[in-house]
């Protein structure tokens, strides 16, 4: 028996949100999270969603944690890698989609927050395009303001503009944060985020948004990746995520980011930074397990 407190070692490695982590670990012992094998693609996707739904029902993660307790978000990501497919869906729902709505949206978008937490409103993050990965600032998707109808017209002008490898897009998402070049009065105001509905309340596909299932992969088949194409989809002007830039009811573009161009893109893509911490959190749990095993072995 080691001459140090095992509980003390655990709390040292856990660092924060210790009670929540203990409850989460106990919850993960349930039958729902036992390994499953030889499943079909549909079964893997359904299982990943059911597991995420169960975690949400227990309140282990909330998009509002970004305001109230950010470390809880990262703690949840550490433990969610028990099922990497579920963890991937979780980080897109709560960080990339939910965090973007929370941080780039304003009060007019807060209606989505409860549905993000309870999975009634599953969403996805439409940044990467077939032709534009690391150079996303040059993306081709457009959101053009129509002053006559007070709407934004979201369009994929070429095949290279299709949103690519979009998690949650193939099956479960109702909403997309679409990043697009915003045109107002013929002027390109840079990349902005626009909320576009891709499915109805019963997950029926909506017109104007073409969803192509990317199918079976080498791994993480619980993740439903999609290619998304927009054919002049009209959404209300207020679907623009307007924390930093907006279009007034009179049709005038206003912004707090005067530099334009790349500066506006970096503000829009800010949620990718916390996404990197989420990914790191999912990796560091393996290091903690290795360290714990090594210390216990050395002590005995």
Q: What would you say this structure looks like, in words?
A:
The protein has helices spanning 6-14, 18-27, 41-57, 65-68, 70-80, 84-104, 113-118, 261-268, 271-299, and strands at residues 123-126, 142-146, 151-155, 163-167, 175-184, 187-197, 209-213, 225-230, 233-236, 245-247, 253-255. Strands 1, 2, 3, 5, 6 and 9 form a six-stranded mixed sheet that branches. Strands 4-8-7 form a three-stranded antiparallel sheet. The chain has 300 residues and is an alpha+beta fold. The chain contains nine helices and eleven strands. It is elongated, with a radius of gyration of 21 Å.
Count of β-strands: 11
Structural class: alpha+beta
Please summarize the sheet with the most strands.
Answer: 6 strands, mixed
Can you write the helix and strand succession as a string? HHHHHHHEEEEEEEEEEEHH
Approximate strand percentage: 15-25%
Rg over CA atoms, rounded to whole Å, is 21 Å
Helix content: 25-40%
Q: What is the rounded distance between the termini?
A: 6 Å
Could you tell me the mean pLDDT? 94
The count of helical stretches stands at 9
Low-confidence stretches: none
Q: Could you say which overall geometry the principal axes of the C-alpha atoms support? A: elongated
Brief description of this entry?
This protein has helices at residues 6-14, 18-27, 41-57, 65-68, 70-80, 84-104, 113-118, 261-268, 271-299; strands at residues 123-126, 142-146, 151-155, 163-167, 175-184, 187-197, 209-213, 225-230, 233-236, 245-247, 253-255.
């Amino acid at each position: 028996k080691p001459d140090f407190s095992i509980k003390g070692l655990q709390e040292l490695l856990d660092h924060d949100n210790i009670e929540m982590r203990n409850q989460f670990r106990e919850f993960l012992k349930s039958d729902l999270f036992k390994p499953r094998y030889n499943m079909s693609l549909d079964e893997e996707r359904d299982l990943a969603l059911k597991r995420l739904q169960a975690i949400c029902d227990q309140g282990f993660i909330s998009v509002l944690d970004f305001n109230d307790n950010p470390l809880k978000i990262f703690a949840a990501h550490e433990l969610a890698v028990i099922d990497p497919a579920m963890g991937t869906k979780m980080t897109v729902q709560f960080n990339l989609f939910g965090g973007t709505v929370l941080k780039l949206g304003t009060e007019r978008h807060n209606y989505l927050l409860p549905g993000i937490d309870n999975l009634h409103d599953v969403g996805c993050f439409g940044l990467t395009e077939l032709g534009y990965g690391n150079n996303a600032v040059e993306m081709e998707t457009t959101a053009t303001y129509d002053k006559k109808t007070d709407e934004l017209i979201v369009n994929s002008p070429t095949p290279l503009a299709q949103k690519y490898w979009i998690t949650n897009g193939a099956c479960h998402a109702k909403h997309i944060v679409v990043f697009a070049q915003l045109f107002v009065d013929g002027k390109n105001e840079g990349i902005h985020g626009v909320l576009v509905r891709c499915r109805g309340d019963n997950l029926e596909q909506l017109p104007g948004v073409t969803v192509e299932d990317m199918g079976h992969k080498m791994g993480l088949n619980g993740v439903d990746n999609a290619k998304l194409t927009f054919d002049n989809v009209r959404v209300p002007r207020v679907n623009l995520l307007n924390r930093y830039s907006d279009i007034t009811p009179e049709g005038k573009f206003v912004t707090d980011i005067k530099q334009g161009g790349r500066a506006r893109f970096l503000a829009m893509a800010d949620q990718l930074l916390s996404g990197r911490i989420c990914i790191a959190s999912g990796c560091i749990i393996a290091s903690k397990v290795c360290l714990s095993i090594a210390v216990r072995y050395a002590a005995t």
